[in-house]
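Section 3.1: Structural characterization of target chains.
Under the original work plan, the team committed to producing a structural model for every single-chain target entering the pipeline before any wet-lab resources were allocated. The record below documents one such target. The sequence was received from the expression subgroup and is listed exactly as submitted; it comprises 469 residues.
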Amino acid sequence: MDGRAIAFQGTGILLLEPLTSPFAPRRERRIPLCVFALVIALWMLASATGVGAQARTALATEVDGVITPVMADHIQEGLTRAEDEGHHLFLIELDTPGGLDSSMRDIIQAFLGANVPVVVHVAPSGARAASAGALITMSAHIAAMAPGTAIGAATPVDLQGGDIERKIIEDAAAYAESVARARGRNTEFAVEAVRDARSVTAEEANRIGVVDLRAPNRAALLEDIDGETVTLATGDELVLETREIQIVPYELGRFRSLLQWLADPNLAFLFMSLGTLAIIYELANPGMGGAGIVGVIMILLALFALAVLPVNALGALMLALAAILFVVEIFTPGIGVGAVGGTASLVLGGLFLFRGGFGVDPEVLVPVAIVVGGATVLAGRMAWRTRRLAPTTGAGAYLDSVAVVRSARGTSGQAIVGGAWWNVRTKGEQLREGATVRVVDVEGLDLVVEEQEGPQMEEGEERKERGEP
């Protein structure tokens, strides 16, 4: 059959079209147009894919403060998010005095097992990566410091001393050395930072191989690490492409920010002290329970803060002793010995409450202790005066009241006391109608009376006795 060849240059397509009548169906002629449209669609898809691949992103967060379980969860969640969402790297801008050893190890373990590059930048100028922060920085794939920052002083502190402290230090030194070796950093500095609390500036840290580079800000850091090669936990090597990379902020969040704010030594001491004071006032003046409720809430907040901070057992025992002495002052007020002892215990408790680089600021410790001690003395005096007052409610309020017997039969009868009818009786004497009696005791719903010697009540006293104006 006759036909003609139609070739599309550059497509590699060769079609044979039969020579048919102009009135015949032209379905075969649609094939080249469909192929052409398919080629264009594939080209556009490839172009779109290429553009998407070039839009690299970095998940960035700020860690400013104590390394607590709250902060550890935040960092671990950010690392998981960076892996799941396909970010090119996870950037952490760090400024910390240290924190809990357990939280530090959780973060380092996550970094060493990360399948996305982790970059830690100790910034801004004036920041530090002390104690736990030093090892966290050294465990990152890329470690950088801004000028004017410092790193080190990773010695664990335990106030119990002795052989236990040496074991803790040696364990921490071995751990620091293994972390530094895993990232190819200066192992000698890592060990000295733990054993001798060595700390160095950003310039020296860069010179001796503690960190990889110095960068004054985020933009300079991303520019300098472009083209660096890192090895992920899977063993794959990845070349960083960080020029003009898009930054995706990763915030701590309101709830975690609140929890992190509560994890402060000064707030923990303040909440514990004021909460104890509120409960003491509730014991001294029992009423609606408002002070007690506030006190319990503040103590619970303090306990949360203590749960995420390195607490020393001696300090906690001193705080408990202070609370006991304050309660003793309430129930047995004297010259304030209990309050003075409680104040001294409170000060010592604040001094010894936390281990490591944590502590209560003396500007908070001393004034709070003095205020709580002084307020306890006042509460003790108020409680003592309250216990000495005569009852103002119930049957006990009628003790020593004087009344006139309105009816009598033997040793019992009735009288109007405080404007109400009461059954009255004596301890054996006969009651006389019209006699003036004095209430000496209350037994059940009866008032025990004794006949009052002397003149009868005058008219005004009788009206008062009946509750009349």
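The chain has a mean pLDDT of 81.
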